[in-house]
Specification:
One of its GO terms (biological process) is cobalamin metabolic process. It is an enzyme of class 1 (oxidoreductase). Its main location: cytoplasm. The strands form six sheets. Strands 1, 2, 3, 4, 5 and 6 form a six-stranded parallel sheet that branches. This protein has 20 helices and 24 strands. Among the domains are: 7-163, Flavodoxin domain (Rossmann fold); 543-697, Rossmann fold. Helices cover 30% and strands 19% of the residues. The longest helix is centred in the N-terminal third of the chain and has 25 residues, at 141-165. The protein is of the alpha/beta class and 699 residues long.
Length: 699
Amino acid sequence: MCCDLKRRFLLLYATQKGQAKAIAEEIWQQAGAHGLEADMHCMSEMDKYNLETEKDPVVIVISTTGTGDPPDTARKFVKEIQDTTLPPDHFAHLQYGLLGLGDSEYTFFCNGGKTVDRRLQELGAQHFYDTGLADDCVGLELVVDPWIDGLWLALKQAFLLQKEKEGMSSNVDAVSSSLSAAPHIVHELNLSSEVQNLSLEDGGVRNSDVLTQKLVDINLVASTADTEPSLVHSVPPVSESALNIPALPPEYIEVQFQDTHGENPHLSSLISEGTTFEVPVTKAVQLTSEDAIKTALLLELDIADTVFDYQPGDAFCVVCPNNVNEVEELLQILGLSEKGECFVCVKIKQGTKKKGATHPQHIPERSTLKFILTWCLELRAIPKKAFLRALVDCTSDAGEKRRLQELCSRQGASDYTRFIRESNVCLLDLLHAFPSCKPSLNLLIEHLPKLQARSYSVSSSNLYQPGKLCFVFNIVEFPACPTRAVSRKGVCTGWLAELVAPLLHPNKNTLDTKGGNPPTEKISIFARPNNTFHLPADPSVPFMMVGPGTGISPFIGFLQHRQKLREEHTDWEFGETWLFFGCRHQHRDYLFKQLKCFLENGTLTHLKVCFSRDSSAAEVAPPKYVQDVIRLYAKEVARVLLKERGYFYVCGDKKHMADGVSDAVVDIISMEMEVDKLEAMKILAILREAKRYLQDVWS
């Protein structure tokens, strides 16, 4: 039961990777100091709340996943409110405020939150507070912090209005005084529904979860002569400021070491997203030359003995471990090298002050320490400010402690963005930079998120290659830099490259006395179907594909599938097909030179390629990028897309390619239809909505 002296509001969150939950927990923590009680629940726990009878204000924090879908924990909720039989006044009694989380690198920014917000409005619910949309591309905190700051005044006004409606005006003064009991200065924020228009006027100091750290005269790690800030060194005004830092998150995990006897759980038990299949890697090919800037690999998996099914354009996920050397390094820093093979029992700490503390679903109740660090926790995750705050209390050196406080403070927000977020700093980087920081194991389990499986586009057709699944990827490289002492490879791509090295180089370090064949490695995968990025249902409809670099991957599956259909159905009518491909060098990273085979047999009607780094002796320099090539075929693009109602597919890098392609198409529409740019953008938006302009992009 909620305390009678505090006004209650319902706090719902829907999360995919834990961000929305962490923000909801921060709101819950702050509520008490404002004389309020947050009744917090995951949106999926529909047996614990009922919006149809809810009388108190509702606060919703919801993320977005995939290409604009609500998170898995919101699916049931969204399905129920989208029931078309519900009357338009179904939620007329409801007062709510919504905070959506998203990434503007993707087309359908914050669509999870927007979907819920729009539907609640359609069903008669009213805002008591403007919707906030936080952008992970620039830093969620830029919207989240001021949105939370303004929430308390909005709730106060909602409660006062509620009291007036109930005819209980005599209690208004009591409510008002209880809400102002905490010495808290707050300024009303005018949050528009667009992040770009957000007014970031930080006019006060949060009291409830903020500790004002008085300035201490200390010597930082770097020389005081340094005028440039770094991960370990600050400069004025941050170094001379009193700091507003988050409250210390309550501990809630207890770890007990046991013996070394037993078996670790199967990897499939860690996956809640779908059925996992352990399949052999039967083939590995390096598609780029040794002197290419990036190394691209093609892997072939044997799925013949499974029920795994896919369509060209689908994606699937690979269950991958953390780097073994990084796990060993972390064990050493924590002083637990001798206990890596010991089984640990993870439980909820008795008497914890954490609201609704539950056992993390991604942590087995019993497994070895090394298993948890290898398969369960995202060691490369960028530490959130709450984690930095917890690390402060694990740090003995005064200078290091102060710098960690700065990095998690309001005053150090730009330093956090620059030296933590944009530098992709992870836990190991922090522990090297702040050597006196010695966190406990339970702290890591509490703050490190689940190790996510990595998603890849299918690069094959089950019709063309029955029982086979192929995919293509670049080996991701993170070079050494001031915030990272050593270079690293991507968690999954680095692991896969090491795993298939015997297939790539069968004569190197392979000792097989039974015939010299390299051992067959297996990986665990699960399906991640794409509901829209598929070939047109009508084979006579023309389509265009844009896929530079590894963005060509799904289109190989498209073309294989189309070739097989042409062979099996000679009486069908097939629409024309276009492919725009680009890479740096023709002789280094032209990934699929066999594209010409599709051209020769008629599967592919038009192939247009460009090479951005090759020099040309031509009098007129050829186009460097796919968006430049597309402009050369403006009339054809307009004809296929607008007159013949064709499809347009884009796959690859969002920021450096997909946005450029989108701009090119807008310009083509504007020019060919003789409309202004705004009208052309509206037409493109209609094409997106009709699922005829489709993107499969990454940042």
